[in-house]
Amino acid sequence: MLSIVVLISGGGSNLRALLEAAEDAEFPARVIAVGADRDAEGLAHAEEFGIPSFTVPFNSFARREEWGDALLEQLRQWQPDLVILSGFMRLVPPRVVAEYSPYLINTHPAYLPEFPGAHGVRDALAAGVTQTGASLIVVDDGVDAGPIISQERIPIHPGDSEASLHERIKPVERRLLVQAVLDIANGHIDLKELSRA
């Protein structure tokens, strides 16, 4: 059974999709804890499903590295097989990456390497392209630059706003994430091998 800690910053819709998938006794992974960098709405999903949660508030630390060390301390307590950044709006410091990568993965609302960074949806609209996507990657020390686990194209409709486009991307992100967790747990995706490629 694959044990997972999910890190969130917002509503946690990807987290909820994983928690719902894991309710199936046949699903080979379990979320054992949920962490956040602020008082995130998505922590309510953890509470609803009876999953322990923790918060390491970014603003409580003078330096990103200090925050990263406190986050690392929390993660180590759970000894997860996999850490998922899901709508987690902070770059994790190198020490966290060094300890968990390639078993540290991230969802991103664009077809990487197109539109990396915090504003992937807005940047795609600003660029005037006709399609964007959703990607799942292994986290490395770059910004959305790690090996791609899976991704899918999503059309941009005339008149799309950042909000409407993001709403169409989210279900694809959820599907990619749940499928990847299943494939990692079943050995169909080897993150170590993927990171060596």
UniProtKB/TrEMBL annotation:
<feature type="active site" description="Proton donor">
    <location>
        <position position="108"/>
    </location>
</feature>
<keyword id="KW-0808">Transferase</keyword>
<dbReference type="InterPro" id="IPR001555">
    <property type="entry name" value="GART_AS"/>
</dbReference>
<feature type="binding site">
    <location>
        <position position="64"/>
    </location>
    <ligand>
        <name>(6R)-10-formyltetrahydrofolate</name>
    </ligand>
</feature>
<protein>
    <recommendedName>
        <fullName>Phosphoribosylglycinamide formyltransferase</fullName>
        <ecNumber>2.1.2.2</ecNumber>
    </recommendedName>
</protein>
<comment type="pathway">
    <text>Purine metabolism; IMP biosynthesis via de novo pathway; N(2)-formyl-N(1)-(5-phospho-D-ribosyl)glycinamide from N(1)-(5-phospho-D-ribosyl)glycinamide (10-formyl THF route): step 1/1.</text>
</comment>
<dbReference type="InterPro" id="IPR004607">
    <property type="entry name" value="GART"/>
</dbReference>
<dbReference type="GO" id="GO:0004644">
    <property type="term" value="F:phosphoribosylglycinamide formyltransferase activity"/>
</dbReference>
<feature type="site" description="Raises pKa of active site His">
    <location>
        <position position="144"/>
    </location>
</feature>
<feature type="binding site">
    <location>
        <position position="106"/>
    </location>
    <ligand>
        <name>(6R)-10-formyltetrahydrofolate</name>
    </ligand>
</feature>
<dbReference type="InterPro" id="IPR002376">
    <property type="entry name" value="Formyl_transf_N"/>
</dbReference>
<feature type="binding site">
    <location>
        <begin position="12"/>
        <end position="14"/>
    </location>
    <ligand>
        <name>N(1)-(5-phospho-beta-D-ribosyl)glycinamide</name>
    </ligand>
</feature>
<keyword id="KW-0658">Purine biosynthesis</keyword>
<feature type="binding site">
    <location>
        <begin position="89"/>
        <end position="92"/>
    </location>
    <ligand>
        <name>(6R)-10-formyltetrahydrofolate</name>
    </ligand>
</feature>
<comment type="similarity">
    <text>Belongs to the GART family.</text>
</comment>
<feature type="domain" description="Formyl transferase N-terminal">
    <location>
        <begin position="4"/>
        <end position="181"/>
    </location>
</feature>
<dbReference type="Pfam" id="PF00551">
    <property type="entry name" value="Formyl_trans_N"/>
</dbReference>
<dbReference type="InterPro" id="IPR036477">
    <property type="entry name" value="Formyl_transf_N_sf"/>
</dbReference>
<comment type="function">
    <text>Catalyzes the transfer of a formyl group from 10-formyltetrahydrofolate to 5-phospho-ribosyl-glycinamide (GAR), producing 5-phospho-ribosyl-N-formylglycinamide (FGAR) and tetrahydrofolate.</text>
</comment>
